[in-house]
Design brief:
It is a single chain. By secondary structure, this protein is mainly α. It has one domain (about 25-165). The protein has five helices and four strands; from the N terminus they run H-H-H-E-E-H-E-H-E. A two-stranded antiparallel sheet has the order 1-2. Strands 3-4 form a two-stranded antiparallel sheet. A hairpin with a 2-residue loop joins strand 1 and strand 2 (about 80). GO terms for molecular function: procollagen-lysine 5-dioxygenase activity.
């Protein structure tokens, strides 16, 4: 600001152009190197890099104003197919969970749950086990919720599914 003020005082006028993108800054402070694929954890702090790697290139068409409910492919009623994440994301999240390796037993007793009992037992890893629950909830709110509002009109609850089965 001091530079701009000094230029104005000397009658040097500037023209600023923000129509060209010359890059962006990243936030390296939160980058954790303890995971198999560390970039998966950057959705909140470095969203542009994360989206470029992991969000499907056609996703933006879905949330645009021209995309209607009838444009979604439905293999059966109330089931919608749409491009969401890249194959790279799918491969890396599966490999990350396999690398972590602490799948539940698939029995009703589950020490990870508050009451220790799972009504419908599955072999899964909860996102909080790998410190990814906050990131996953952010992804659901930012990317899934806008689509949910289009396909289930009138149902506006925030999505949640903090586990990977």
């Amino acid at each position: 600001m001091e530079f701009a003020e000094a230029a104005r005082k000397k009658n040097i006028f500037m023209f600023l152009d923000n129509r060209e993108e010359f890059g962006y800054l990243i936030f390296p402070d939160s980058y954790n190197t303890t995971h198999l694929y560390n970039d998966l954890w950057q959705v909140i702090d470095n969203p542009l890099d994360w989206e470029e790697q992991y969000i499907h290139p056609n996703y933006s068409k879905l949330v645009g104003t021209g995309f209607q409910l009838s444009d979604f492919e439905q293999p059966c009623p109330d089931v919608f197919w749409f491009p969401f994440v890249t194959e790279k994301f799918c491969r890396q999240i599966v490999e990350e969970m396999e690398y972590f390796g602490q799948w539940s037993s698939g029995k009703n007793e589950d020490a990870r749950l508050e009451g220790g009992y799972e009504n419908v037992p599955t072999r899964d890893i909860h996102m909080r086990q790998v410190d990814w629950e906050g990131h996953w909830m952010h992804i659901l709110r930012k990317y899934v919720h806008p689509i949910q509002k289009k396909v289930f009109q009138g149902y506006d609850d925030i999505v949640s599914a903090p586990f990977l089965t």
